[in-house]
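Our preliminary data section would be incomplete without showing what the modeling component actually yields. Below, a chain of 64 amino acids is followed by its predicted structure, encoded as C-alpha cells that our downstream tools consume directly.
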Amino acid sequence: MATLKLEDCVNDVCPWSGKPVAADSLTLYRGQVVGFCNPGCRDKFEKAAGMFDARIGADGAVKG
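Predicted structure:
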C-alpha cells in the first residue's frame, strides 16, 4: 500500500469528532485520502464504509 500523506487529505477536520486530522490516521476511500483525528476514528470509518460499500452495487443501487 502506498504511503498516505497529510497534504493529500481532502479534509482538515475529523468527520466523527470535528478535531484536526492526524498524519497517523489517514485512509484511502474511493480514491481520496480522508483524515481522522486518531486511529480509532479512522478504523470506525473503515468498518462503516465497508458495510455501506458491501450494500451498494457498482451502479449505485442498494442491494437487498
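The chain has one domain: 6-55. The mean pLDDT is 89. Preliminary results of this kind motivate Aim 1 of the renewal.
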